[in-house]
Amino acid sequence: MRFDEAYSGNVFILSNPTFEESDAVIYGMPMDWTVSFRPGSRFGPARIRQASLGLEEYSPYADRHLEEVTYFDAGDIPLPFGNPQRSIEMIEEYIEKLLDAGKFPLGLGGEHLVTWPIIKAFHRKYDDLVVIHIDAHADLREQYEGEPLSHSTPVRKICGLIGPENVYSFGIRSGMREEFQYAKESGMHMYKFNVAEPLKEVLPTLAGRNVYVTIDIDVLDPAHAPGTGTAEAGGITSKELLEAITMISNSDINVVGADLVEVAPAYDSSEQTQIAASKFVREMLLGWVK
């Protein structure tokens, strides 16, 4: 698959037919090779696209219509099944091409390890990069059962690359004691349990900065998003996450890219998880693609 060729499957609603004329590119990362509990997030990108067909194209949150944004759905990167090392190499190479072409990358996961190669590519372009991480889990382990390539390690790897002081985690309610200790001692910014309230305080301090946003769907309470691999009770509502996305849209930060990960459709026969995810993607497109 070429990074600029048309996708032959279902595309996100109102996707532009041409890569060249689009400001943003939606792409899928169907990988769940390192999950520690329930697999299935590799099917997330396709189901989010399908759910988007039921969306209204107008957003009352942004007061904008999807016709006002030009984006191209490039489909899924053809990642080699069961090979995490080669998969993350391919994702990094893909993002480099999108950045070289001047596009806004909007990724659909897949497990959360996919964010690590994305940030590696972004870090080469933006030496002042900030990462906003919205998630139930700290993802600050150095390894899981001896394996450093794990969906529980990406944020720790990102801290080592861009500096922990440039990483802001929101909604965290699960992790090892050592992960919370690392967050406290390293200088990274971790806000437990809530998202919108602390984000409101943080965003003014990041004015003018280049920011990448990664959202794990399991930041939502399982009542709102049961379709995920590692559900955690005590999460936020869909309304609160929409509020956070809108808050970012209305801030003075420069969002340069984003992803939404860990939708695992098999665990949600009602499809409310992928329906919610598609709405979040709509708001990200309308609010973050300039």
Automatic annotation (TrEMBL):
Binds 2 manganese ions per subunit. It catalyses: agmatine + H2O = urea + putrescine. PROSITE patterns: ARGINASE_1 (PS01053), ARGINASE_2 (PS51409). It is an enzyme of class 3 (hydrolase). Its EC number is 3.5.3.11. Transmembrane segments: none annotated. One of its GO terms (molecular function) is metal ion binding. Keywords: Hydrolase, Manganese, Metal-binding, Polyamine biosynthesis, Putrescine biosynthesis, Spermidine biosynthesis. Its cofactor is Mn(2+). Pathway: Amine and polyamine biosynthesis; putrescine biosynthesis via agmatine pathway; putrescine from agmatine: step 1/1. It comes from the Bacteria. Mn(2+) binds at residues 112, 135, 137, 139, 216, 218. GO terms for biological process: putrescine biosynthetic process from arginine, via agmatine; spermidine biosynthetic process. It holds the Pfam family Arginase. The keyword Metal-binding applies. Belongs to the arginase family. Agmatinase subfamily. Catalyzes the formation of putrescine from agmatine. This is Agmatinase.
